[in-house]
Amino acid sequence: MTPVAGGVALNLALGCSVLSIITLIAYNRTLDHRLFLAGQRLGLAISFFVFISTFILGYQLFVSNFDIDYVARYTSYETPNIFKISALWAGQSGSLLFWLFILSIFNTVTIIQNQDRHLNLMPWVIITMSVIQLFFLILTNFITNPFEPTQADFVVQNGNGLNPLLQNITMAIHPPTLYLGYVGFSVPFAFAFSALVNKDIGALWIRSIRRWTLVSWLFLSIGIILGGWWAYQELGWGGYWAWDPVENASFMPWLTATAFLHSIIVQEKKDMLRVWNMVLIILTFSLCIFGTFLTRSGVMSSVHSFTESSLGPVFLSFVFIILASSFGLMFSRMTVLKSPRKIESVSSRESGFLFNNLIFVVMCFGVFWGTLFPVITEWFNGDKISVGPPFFNQINTPIGLALLALTGIGPMLAWKGTSNNKLIQNFALPIAFGLLGAIIFVFLGFTTYTIISFSLCIFVVIAISSEFIKGVKVRKSKFNETIFLSLYKMIEKNRSRYGGYIVHLGIVLMFVGFTGHAFDKEKEFGIQVGQIESVANYNFQLTRMYEEERPNHYAWITDLRVSDAAGNFITSLRPEKRVYFHKNPDINKRQPHSELDIYSTMNKDIYSIFSSVSSDNSIAFIKIMINPLVKWVWIGGYILAFGTLIALWPRKD
Questions:
Q1: Which of 9, 230, 308, 335 might form a disulfide with 52, Cβ 3.0–4.6 angstroms?
Q2: Is the domain of 292 the same as that of 393?
């Protein structure tokens, strides 16, 4: 497998994508089934050639073929094998090829899965998917080719190696997971676009993509959580979310996709919110492409972004084409898009879903505006304005609390409308527990937002738990089953509903972790061997500091003995200060990196960073952070994924 073969495979994929589009457009005019079969097979051929080119690049990275510029930039002989493979998505051109690779997997599955189904929708589904593939093939063939040879007048003996921040097992998992979420929304978008073209606006296209949407949403959720985990474990600033532009780029489509997931339930059951669903899936896919633009355009500075390139205008143009064509087509179909039914009551579940959608879209707009405002300001008057976490927190905290409340309110509302007696019956217990919690938190001296957040968490947990308890009681009395068997059977019979409730519980636990940030404490100090420093009722003694040379870096290692105020031993922390490429004679190419250490409990994390060492190696400069309730964020993430898997699990025939 040679680099030339990889480039040729990309050329062939480009040709097949053009032929596939032309052939299927011709089929739509002539209805000659042979043209449909040809277009379908050309669609599979696109994916086949993309697979070949991706495997070739992966192999070249693994064997360290530095004749390829991309390989020389992102690997070296010292790079561990696992990170040589993950270098596939570490740089600009490789990550675009990887995007295309995942898109091709989804395209192949979609075509094979629907060979004998949805025949009215599939021609335009394949056309839409082929157009998206064509866009990325144009990028990888003509603008940022991953098989570009190394431009040097000498034989490259070794590569630059992978950025130390990316030499983390989470970063070998996080980008592919995030891409599976980003790229996965291409399929629902393709079905939505096809439904608009064919004026087939009923529930068929919704049913055909519901599972795709849920899978994509799950991967995007896991990718975002893994990104937070990586930031917390690797970047050394003590947090997991900083409202970074590229973080926001993944969060915005997650918001609209979450709204879409809720909204399609209403269309499936009540044939309502048709326009909402079209708007939400168009926005979700457009925001996925827009997020790719933010990462690769260089218009924003971010630890997550790639270097500045000429890709920005190309991506932005593609986003505008998607929005213009999709919304233009949607407006031309407004007569068939109008729902035959209307929401009958404010206290109905349909109304709850609509409020839910509005809040998600408002939050998305707030994040979008805060992310782009500095860029827009600089374009117009040349001034660089920074919009940081305080702005996003101020805007999104009240909106987030409203969403938290709706996760408990929604399940207790009935379709069409909820009577006053039923409202009192359903809400009395959750509200009572929430108010009791609020009173306790007031006496404990918590801040206003902290009181509201914890009280709403109690409210939602009681509300969702009561739904499970009511269902178990009904089954237990009807079938004389044990509690656990009734719970199992109840979830099995209605997996989407109760899986969704479990997802809501996961989100509540994540909010508990988010709220714990209000109690963070930190201290930075220099310390010598034998000295003791105190932080938030903990004592930190530096027992030793030593040096060690390893295969791809040099490290200074500290040993911190942690004890409580009474002197009882708790744990030992060993944060490190590393220098990667330490043997490089060019001092500017040596890369310092702080490898932190964390002691984590259900109650709080003790977070230690070795910032630097004095010139005579006698003083270590340490930063200690006490971060309460962080573990609840990760536990909530596990439960969210578990609930989604329950909702996805196929029914027994």
A1: 9
A2: yes
